[in-house]
Amino acid sequence: MLxxxxxxxxxxxPGTPLDHVIxxxxxxxxDTIDPLDCIVPIxxxxxxEIHRMAEHMKANPLPExxxxxxxxxxxxxxxxxxEARHKLAHGTGVAVIDRLPMDALGAQSAVAVFWVLGxxxxxxxxxxxxxxxxxxxxxxxxxxxxxxxxxxxxxxxVFHTDNAFGLAPPDYVGLxxxxxxxxxxxxxxxxxxxxxxxxxEKHPRELARLYEPMLWDRQAEHVDGAPKVARAxxxxxxxxxxxxxxxxxxxxxxxxxxxxxxxxxxxxxxxVLNEVTLDENLWFGLPIERGQMQYLNNVETAHYRSExxxxxxxxxxxxxxxxxxxxxxxxxxxx
Length: 335
Known about the structure:
Helix content is 27%, strand content 21%. It is an alpha+beta fold. Helix 1 packs across helix 2, helix 1 (44-59) crosses helix 4 (107-118) and helix 5 crosses helix 6.
């Protein structure tokens, strides 16, 4: 029996599980794509626009949240972002814009530019219940436990989608790299359609269980007194598109917070999913380097981060700035 209240996050229509293999561009594997195709260079003309943006912002101070693309001339930058958006929707679901000149712009201006450019992917939305729009991804030194996101630690993060436990997960995730880790912190990406294909072919029983509701730790991202765990399926097929919430760590924590054992069929399904994503043919890796802006399709592509060791110099420790984007619902955390 549950020892805590549960927030039910169920699809508006139940739908039926996807029962056939997807063979289009969404179901890529390491053998069918070139990771370097994810790179989007910034043209000289676009870079000139970026420098003019930064100069204008320095001469006309405003909080980053008030900056919007229509405030600037962005003809060439718009072309760069359109290419990135195309890769998110019709490629691997990963686009790495290479790169902002961090030393020339300065940290504050670089974040402001990143904030403005992100609007051309989709509308930015809150990443925490308290309304945080720009989120610092860095090791804060806290232990990974209830109420602490893995992004605030240096631990390994299994393949997942951001805000898998939330009412309104983002469609896209953006990252600006101030500094990479001294060691580790490497990113991997995999197509959730390819993962689904593999499970459909080899583990249909376990896949079917992932279409049924399961518990998720909400990581204390809610008003005081609200349910600490959510109940939702991992996979949902609406007839055209998979909608996926993926983070097996948060499933396990959800059952711990609820005070009950993970059901044996659920434990088996989560174990199989983790095993499938270990197959090197299903993912590719890309480092994120200083000044790069990395965007992810958070519905069709899962991402992984290895454990890392930081620089001894606090000024150069691993530090990314993150944005979330979606064009539906409200701009607040729960949509």
